[in-house]
Amino acid sequence: MIWVKAVMLVLASMLLALGIVLPLARFEKLYFFVDKPSLFEIVVALWRDGNAGLALLVGLLSIAFTIVKLVGLGAEAFMVPGTDTRSGILHALVPLLSKWSMMDVLLVAIVIFAAKSSGLAEAFTQPGLWFYAASSVLAGLLHHVVQRQARAQ
Q: Minimal CA–CA distance to 29: which of 106, 127, 125, 124?
């Protein structure tokens, strides 16, 4: 079972990295202008354009919290057997961060729907969104496996 958890953790981390740097969506305006921003580029552009608060919010919720959640999942998944995992900070932090996992995927889907329905631009999903979503789903499955294993002990 330890190999399954290790593979899930490594794969979720790799998918997250790809989801952060690859384009999330492609926006075509007037058939000439194409924009394919990645999550990292969005945060940098928000910061550069003077929206520091929004850049920090998106960076924290989308990137930092997700990385902290994966680190917490890794620590929780590979904790020494026999130790009490229910009383630690990881046991409280991981479920809290897991609740926000799919929020970014939902927000990008809403933006794509809004762009398509407004007629201002054509919007299409890109691999970054799918990698980010796959990382969130895989992290959720890993959390489920860890919780099930903890209950069995």
A: 124
Which band of pLDDT confidence, cut at 50, 70 and 90, is reported for residue 152?
Answer: confident
- Can you spell out the DSSP letters for 69-120? HHHHHHHHHTPPTTS--SSSHHHHHHHHHHTTTTHHHHHHHHHHHHHHHHSS
pTM of the model: 0.83
CB atoms within 10 A of CB 64: 12
Q: Which tokens sit at 17?
A: 């990295």
User: In whole angstroms, what separates CA 139 from the centre of its chain?
Assistant: 9
Question: With contact defined as beta carbons under 8 Å apart, do 132 and 16 qualify?
Answer: yes
pLDDT digits (tens, 9 = 90+) for 64-74: 888 988 988 88
Chain segment 34-44, per-residue pLDDT in tens = 888 888 998 89
H or E stretch including 122?
A: strand 122-125
Q: Give the Cβ contact number of residue 122 at 10 Å.
A: 15
Exposure pattern of 31-56 as b/e (b: 16+ CB <10 Å)? eeeeeebbbbbbbeebbeeeeeeebe
